[in-house]
Amino acid sequence: MPQRPTGNGTRGSDSTLSGRSLSYTDPLYHSRPRSFLVPVARPLIVYNKRTRTMPGGSHQPLRALASAAGLVFGGIFTLSLASSVTIRALQSNTESKRKKVARPCTVCKGKGFYVCKLCGGSSTIEWSPLYEPIVINPCLCPTCDGNKVQRCLNCLGKCYI
Predict the structure, then answer these.
(1) What global pTM score does this model have?
(2) H or E element: which one contains 27?
(3) Residue 161 and residue 153: Cα distance in Å, rounded?
(4) How far apart are CA 100 and CA 111, in angstroms?
(5) Which candidate among 41, 78, 114, 125 keeps its CA 20 to 30 Å from the CA of 27?
């Protein structure tokens, strides 16, 4: 906050211009910038030319290289994100158009799944690692993982051809 001029015409805490005292009623007082009235302390940035270091101790060329690398990798990431979103939108648009005119799959009857052919819907198979087994162990079906159904291999679960 600026201090009120004393009006005695001396240089000091008051704002003077060529020995003239300024008061709040003087139009010249209000036309001056505030920074003239209140001195602003600005930090002095010292650049060491011999070692090329900034006040924080980091090298100026290294800082420039890091900012350039950040700019390049940021641009690549943004471009990759935009292209993947665009491709995904085009694929979903194409699939929705294809689904409208496509006929249903005849193998799974338009359901996308059918009963597992390996286990027959029991979720286990009888298996033994030996050629002539002594004991046959029931194991979880590797095709359906115990779900008793498998994805249609004709339409790949999309329900249409």
Answers:
(1) 0.45
(2) helix 27-31
(3) 11
(4) 16
(5) 41
